[in-house]
Design goal:
This protein is α+β, with helices and mostly antiparallel strands and 75 residues long. It has a four-stranded antiparallel β-sheet with strand order 2-1-3-4, with helices on one face. The mean pLDDT is 81.
Length: 75
Amino acid sequence: MTRLTVQYFRDMNDPTSGLWQTLPPPNDLHEALLFARDGFADVRDYLGATRFKIMDHNGAVVAEEMRPVGTKAGF
């Protein structure tokens, strides 16, 4: 299994608006999604994130979720 990275972004349309990056403990995409969603509320509230991407070690996006500004947490 490949190592995954979770990256949170402020602007949904600007890939250079990265705020924070972390390595989820598991190497499983399903677990990485749960990890990213769990941390999304805090990153949104404290840093203004509106989106996250999960990328593999080559930088390819394997998952992405976004929420328009002003909406509540919960998927």
